[in-house]
Automatic annotation (TrEMBL):
<dbReference type="InterPro" id="IPR037272">
    <property type="entry name" value="SNS_sf"/>
</dbReference>
<dbReference type="InterPro" id="IPR000175">
    <property type="entry name" value="Na/ntran_symport"/>
</dbReference>
<feature type="transmembrane region" description="Helical">
    <location>
        <begin position="91"/>
        <end position="114"/>
    </location>
</feature>
<keyword id="KW-0813">Transport</keyword>
<keyword id="KW-0472">Membrane</keyword>
<feature type="transmembrane region" description="Helical">
    <location>
        <begin position="347"/>
        <end position="368"/>
    </location>
</feature>
<feature type="transmembrane region" description="Helical">
    <location>
        <begin position="388"/>
        <end position="405"/>
    </location>
</feature>
<feature type="transmembrane region" description="Helical">
    <location>
        <begin position="12"/>
        <end position="32"/>
    </location>
</feature>
<feature type="transmembrane region" description="Helical">
    <location>
        <begin position="179"/>
        <end position="199"/>
    </location>
</feature>
<keyword id="KW-1133">Transmembrane helix</keyword>
<dbReference type="GO" id="GO:0016020">
    <property type="term" value="C:membrane"/>
</dbReference>
<feature type="transmembrane region" description="Helical">
    <location>
        <begin position="219"/>
        <end position="246"/>
    </location>
</feature>
<feature type="transmembrane region" description="Helical">
    <location>
        <begin position="44"/>
        <end position="64"/>
    </location>
</feature>
<feature type="transmembrane region" description="Helical">
    <location>
        <begin position="258"/>
        <end position="282"/>
    </location>
</feature>
<dbReference type="Pfam" id="PF00209">
    <property type="entry name" value="SNF"/>
</dbReference>
<keyword id="KW-0812">Transmembrane</keyword>
<feature type="transmembrane region" description="Helical">
    <location>
        <begin position="425"/>
        <end position="448"/>
    </location>
</feature>
Amino acid sequence: MDNENKNREHWGSRLGFILACLGSAVGLGNVWRFSTTAGENGGGAFLIVYLLIVLIIGLPVVLAEFTIGRKAQSDVVGAFEKLAPGKPWKIMGYMGVATGFIILSFYSVIAGWVMKYFFGYVTGAIANVPGQDFTSYFTSFIGQRYEPVIWQFIFMTLTIGVVIAGVKKGIEAANKLLMPLLGVLLVVLSIYSLTLGGAKEGLTFLFYPDWDKLFDPQVILAALGQAFFSLSLGMGTLITFGGYLSREHKLPSAALSVGLLDSSVAIISGVLIFPAVFAFGQDPSSGPGLVFMTLPNVFEQISAGMLVGALFFFLLFAAALSSSVSLLEVTVAYFMRKLQWSRKQTVVLIGGIIFLLGIPSSLAQGAIPITVMGRDFLTFMDQLSGNVLLPLGGVIIALFMGWAWKKEEALRDSDLGNTWVGNVWIWIVRIIAPLAILIIFLNKIGIIE
Ligand code: TYR
């Protein structure tokens, strides 16, 4: 081991690594973004395409990121510089850092809304919403100029605090307890949600595909973006996390666990949300506010609803925090090496810039109409990062793994070995994944039908 490696922070255990990746993967993407996107893209058809993409493209690229990260033991730019010196692959690294800025900027806005709801349940404010009109409650809250920005600021400050504390202490510890708790609560609540009268419609919406939509380029692109966003894939988060992994840990089963658990959380939260949407006569395609307008109706029905609501939004907040920490870590790991600054200085500077970048996303919700290409600023940033930058990053990562490495070395370094699974994986990263993503892009733009 060279000096640099000896001084690098490492995960305490393989479980710690898997939990950190899960902490990154499971977050607002599974609950807020999944339900919004599934709702806007027809439910069942979206779900099928999403699951296929996770399986065929997502998991192989997750493994590629782990492999690159563990081999390079560096940040996302450094990894490519180290493994392919002087070659243009490191463009992927810069793109990853930029994507981290973009995602965290609006992610912290939504996480701020989650904190507002948590406190709304703790203080009982949500119990006193006039006429239980949670839709107006939500829209008037996000339409304000200052309050949502203050919540966003608090959330960013917490993220900064955790990232300053460092990889092992900060990230590993919190995930161990809170994530399983979130899983359990989601299961319990989804069972309850099925009793509210919208089960048949909700489950049909989520699981029964409208076959016409299955081939709708918009639905397919949305599913691709959702798969990458939810798996924290395509911007080097998993390269960065793999970079804190020592050599002896096995990668393929880690990739599989992260992928399966992440998708399960998304599906379970769909089973919680969509039956409730129909039970309370709401519109599944009502956009980014869906969760915030629907779930309060569910908690309203439960006798200890205030408590359950507080618990739910607290756990969702915790899940969001472990994701935002991973997003910030990607950019900080790079700038710390590049600027030769201390962790603390770097985190505060980068975190501050990201906070500022997030303000227009917050204001665009009603206070000031900021739109880009016909979308409000938040939706624009969300779609730019999720549907374009992450899958594009995925293409480069897959091509790098498939073509810049010798096949034998790729098979060895990924721990797959020369097995049939290994060979399938090689061809997926070499051809199938990049080609599929390209076709989805071109199809959406209308270049191919
Ligand atoms: N996967 C996270 C979620 O679902 C969000 C995220 C996206 C985190 C990309 C990291 C990342 O690199 O909430």
